[in-house]
Amino acid sequence: MKRFIEELLPIKEISEESAREKNIRHGHISTLHIWWARRPLIASRATIYSALVPAENIEEKKKFLLKIAKWENSLNKELIEKAREEIKKENGRKVLRVLDPFSGGGSIPLECLRLGLETHAIDYNPVAVLLLKCILEYPQKYGRPQKVVEQNGFYKQEKQESPLIKDVQRWGEWVLESAKKEIGRFYPTDEDGSIPVGYLWARTVPCQNPLCGAEIPLIRQFWLAKKEKKKISLYPFVYNKRVEFAIVKKEGNQWKVLESSVEGFEPKVPENFDPEKGTTARAKAVCLVCGSTIEDDDVRRLFREGKASQRMTAVVLNTQKAEGKSYRLATEKDLEFYRLAEEYLEEKRKKLWEEWGIDPVPDENLPPENTLGFRVQRYGILKWGDLFNSRQKLALITFTEKVRLAYKKMLEEGYDKDYAKAVVSYLGIFISRFSSYHNSLVPLQPGYEKVQRTFSRQALGMVWDYVEVNPISENVGGWDTLFTDVIDTLSHITQIPPVEAEE
Ligand SMILES: C[S@@+](CC[C@H](N)C(=O)[O-])C[C@H]1O[C@@H](n2cnc3c(N)ncnc32)[C@H](O)[C@@H]1O
Ligand SMILES: [Zn+2]
Question: Which ligand is nearest to the CA of 279?
Fold first, then answer.
């Protein structure tokens, strides 16, 4: 039989739909966990369908293909049923069996499943295998919505509920609450009730001019909020041979100083101050105190020699007020809480090390420089653990510990072992995704007043000024906010109609 794909594949339309898919946030498996080479679902769906139906009624089939190859129709029961039926009809009414031996991020097997095929997936990478279990196996095995009866006062209410989703949600909340209890004190709320959602840090190197030696904060650009109606920036100025900061707001053509780090001194900000121009570009640094520059190779060497440090510059706050986020300069108190977290990290790390038999802060080497765009090794960032600041390390090992405890607790509560493993697998891969928002390579996106997670580009390059996101706040990067993606994705996957078993 000649297959449709041998006659026609509307590449242009499929490509356009596939490109659009990149922006889909809700329910897409990419928000469960990243996979480098993951194929678009739309392209996978279109290809599988086209390879399994005959090259007949070409125009009609093309129309239908373009309908099913739309993200919005991914859960359209009628269309899916029709596609499944066509495939079955053409193949002797048998449920076809497919094996994808290089399944990776699971796109092809997921679409096979959607199109009603008995699907088998293999990969030799353990991360991929865990993802495949979470995308394909567990939702099929444990995720089907079931009828539950809820007593609502006098009334009984019936609803459909996936036990897997319910448990992943429940234990995700349990992990967050347990972590909050332990490390919440290191992210204190401001006196006026504003919640710090991010701490801005600048890496620093000492000026190499022997007559100067000032600390150079390395900042790519100074903007904090760069929106049409909200232009707020850090403004650096020199005071007593030290770089100090003010927070300034653009009003008309003027910069208004909102706050200065030197008490009783307000710098004059020239009208032409351009926040776009930072103190560093392409690893070259400029000392604002004496005006001398450090070449890129020397900046890297200073990092490798352990002479670089970091300085907290500002704090991003969630306020109750209408303007959304606000900004203030970092204070001694902010640093004190950071140092307390640093101290507690040592204690916690020791305790978990004894319990687990391994260093909870990953001490394995990063891959060699330039593998998959990893370029931070040039700055002496050589181990996985070096990608995080101390409070981030504390947060991540604490959340990880809580996930392990959740598993233990599930068993104590009488959960089936395999089922508990499934639930905890989602929490595990979530921690991995979570860590892409909680490392020292997360830049601020002033245009959106948000952060950009690591690996949003397929590379790991240096970030001079990064945001330490408050992991327990309700904000991009916070546990709660990100966790909804897991639930959305699971909800999508578990709505794919089951494949009837072959008799
Ligand atoms: C290009 S990716 C496949 C991407 C996949 N189709 C998707 O949509 O995510 C290739 C995959 O093959 C896996 N792989 C490479 N050699 C393999 C082998 N010998 N056995 C099993 N899997 C292998 C890799 O781990 C990787 O996940
Ligand atoms: Zn200098």
Answer: 2
User: What is the number of structural domains in the chain?
Assistant: 3
Residues 413 and 337 in one domain: yes
pTM: 0.94
Distance CA 330, CA 465 (A): 14
In short, whether 125's Cβ falls inside 6 Å of ligand 1 is: yes
Considering only CA atoms, which of 30, 164, 28 is closest in space to residue 104? 30
| DSSP state for residue 136 in the 8-state scheme | I
132 and 50 fall within a common domain: yes
Query: Domain ends where: 325, 347, 362?
Result: 325
Q: Has residue 159 been placed in a domain?
A: no
Ligand 1 pocket test, candidate residues 36, 102, 130, 134, most atoms within 8 A of CB = 102
Q: What residues pair up with 374 in beta bridges, in sequence order? A: 460
Residue 163 falls inside a structural domain: no
336 and 484 in a common domain:
yes
- Report which residue type is found at 200: L
> Are residues 317 and 339 both part of a single domain?
no
Among 18, 124, 131, say which to mutate for ligand 1: greatest number of ligand atoms within 8 Å of CB: 124
Q: Mark whether 291 and 371 lie in a shared domain.
A: no
Both tokens assigned to 405: 């405890």
For residue 477, give every residue at least 6 positions away whose Cβ sits within 8 Å of its Cβ, in sequence order, or none: 198, 437, 438, 442, 451, 453, 469, 470, 471
Assigned domain for 164 exists: no
Alpha helical stretches, state H, 436-497: 479-494
Residues 137 and 42 in one domain: yes
User: How many Å apart are CA 235 and CA 214, to the nearest integer?
Assistant: 17
Do 465 and 338 share a structural domain?
yes
Does residue 502 lie within any of the structural domains? Answer: no
User: Cα-flanking dihedrals φ and ψ of residue 6, to 5°?
Assistant: -75, -20
Same domain, 302 and 442: no
Per-residue pLDDT of the chain (503 residues; tens, 9 = 90+): 899 999 999 999 999 999 999 888 789 999 999 998 899 999 999 999 999 999 999 999 999 999 999 999 999 999 999 999 999 998 888 899 999 999 999 999 999 999 999 999 999 999 999 999 999 999 999 999 888 888 888 888 888 899 999 999 999 999 999 999 999 999 999 999 999 999 999 999 999 999 999 999 999 999 999 999 999 999 999 999 999 999 999 999 999 999 999 999 999 999 999 999 999 988 899 999 999 999 999 999 999 999 999 999 999 999 877 678 999 999 999 999 999 999 999 999 999 999 999 999 999 999 999 888 899 999 999 999 999 999 999 999 999 999 999 999 999 999 999 999 999 999 999 999 999 999 999 999 999 999 998 888 788 889 999 999 999 998 889 999 999 999 999 999 999 998 876 65
Q: Which domain holds residue 17?
A: 4-142
Q: Which residues in 166-253 belong to E strands, given as ranges?
A: 195-206, 215-218, 223-227, 230-239, 242-251
**Among protein residues, the one whose CA lies closest to atom 22 of ligand 1:** 123
DSSP 8-class letter at 474: S
